[in-house]
Fold:
Amino acid sequence: MTQERIKLIQKSWLYVMDKADEAGRLFYKRLFEVEPNVRSLFKENIEKQGKKLIDVINWIVLNLQDIDTVFGGAKELARRHVRYGVQVEHYPLVGHTLIWTLGNIIGKEWTKELEQAWTEAYEALSQVMIEEHKKGQ
Ligand code: HEM
Structure:
């Protein structure tokens, strides 16, 4: 990922952090609308889960320049997700839901360029997570 794309992602993320609670809520609302079957995997209060999700994405976004650290954290996260009953097929679903949520929260500042940058980042991250997931299955 180029420095330019990293900066683009980091700048756009500031909008999301301004509306962090709303973004977390919107993400799960959309996820369960699109795929109601995954609802039962979540045991934790969804409000809290939304905060955890935003926190970890925040950590990832702030550390994009240090990609080995990010991928290391992502592998640990993926191993925990095997225990949550998550399946490999769920990763694209979560990716689409994330991109949709970002577009919705960022609103008119959301551009095709941003969509491409975030999609590229999610693809790279989920690839690492899926590989790790398969090892742990
Ligand atoms: C890049 C992708 C993802 C990120 C960044 C992410 C982030 C998180 C975080 C931060 C947690 C809190 C617990 C922990 O840290 O272990 C969590 C839990 C969880 N995630 Fe994910 N996740 C991702 C992908 C997925 C996918 C694809 C699914 C499938 C539906 C999923 C379902 C869950 C479930 C079921 C839990 C446990 C909730 C509970 O204990 O109630 N996640 N996720």
About this structure: The pocket of protoporphyrin IX containing FE is lined by residues 38, 41-44, 49, 52-53, 56-57, 77, 80-81, 84, 86, 90-91, 94, 125-126, 129 (CB under 6 Å). The chain has a mean pLDDT of 97. The radius of gyration is 14 Å.
